Amino acid sequence: MFNIGYAQEIITPPVGVGLAGYMNKRPNAGMYDDLYVKTVIIDNGKVRCGLVSFDLCSVFNRLLDTLKEKITGKFGEELFNHLIICANHTHTGPELRKEQDDLTEYSFHQIVDAAMRAIERAIMNLLPGEIEYGAVYNNPYGFVRRYWMKNGTIVTNPGWGNPDIDKPESDFDRNIGIIRIIQNGRTAALICNIAQHGDTIGGNLVSADWYGRFTQEIQHSLKASMPVIVVDDASGDINHFDFHQKINQTSYDEAVRIGRGYAAIVLGALDKLEKLTDEEIVVKNSTVTIPHRKLTAEEVAEAQNILDTVPDIPKEGDFESQDLANKVPAALRYFAQRALDCHAKSTPSHDARLTAIEFGKTLAFVSLPGEPFNGIGRAIRENSPFKNTVIVSLAQSQSGYVPMQECFARGGYEVQPGIDTAAPEAAGEIIKAALANL
Description:
The structure is a single chain. Helix content is about 30%, strand content about 25%. The protein is built from ten helices and 20 strands. The strands form five sheets. Strands 1, 2, 3, 4, 5, 10, 11, 12 and 14 form a nine-stranded mixed beta sheet that branches. The chain is globular, with a radius of gyration of 21 Å.
């Protein structure tokens, strides 16, 4: 028998705290909807494990280190080692890694305290429950955002209706995983695994993005204020932009449309889920060393030339990835400086924690660091010994984009060098380590 507890706490930052996700500063000027930390704890009498998910753009070292200290101190080291701590990747949540002014510090500690309350309440509320699992291969709102152009180059986000687009760089895994917690004959919590960027709104108002609208629609349909956790499948090269249509796809209305659309898919699959009958739980942790990017002398010289020759013209509005494709001067200079910083300041590598939570041979949760390309998650899922494998990216370790090895020579936004960015061989190392951990 499983005993299951769940809880959620608000982590909305105060007005004035900077928002994460873009390259320009965006002080919070209000909110569309609240942000949450959500927790599900599962206990089979021998092993206690679970998920802690934040409505944040990423998890970062200071947050992870602080949570480790507090969780270990209050609940013991074993519980910390049995948790997957992740972010859903909203681009309209607080930026907590930079410029630690008093307001940002307040927000950081508010978020940590909320996470501890959620974990404690989830443990206090452990009750018998059932787990159902399943998946549906249907993701109509996701698109590979890297495109082959007719001139043979790769461009990230090339623009709506661009006549020079040839085709997407690759296909992607449209699998949507669904885990349902049932208690007292009702759906008590949901965990959903979807490959999609959380970047539909822009601007400077706080929002959980489409994840929040997805949650609200599920809660409305099931008539319950239950936790609905979206764990981000590998989606470093996936977003919601359909460049074959000339429509506005950056707005709160777009977040509502996508959230409600995904909710309809998940709700339609709930009666097709299977009961998890294997109650054995095994948690495995390992470490993968992620090598960092090294630049050639020619790449360094090219970056310096850009800084020497491109005029320093500030950009109005949000600073986004497509500005690089459009050769906006501010973007060219920004990435040129990143390349020089990569050359001068990068360390050789960093270690990332990998965690697998396994239920018999039926279901496994697999954590991945940073923003891995979808091909990484697909390779793990295709070679996993488990019937259902839930990929949890942006988890356990602070890391950036992890593109597939072949993507580096092709160019695009995600492979631009920066301090401690992943090297071409990093994807293969992560795939190998994650499968070994299973």
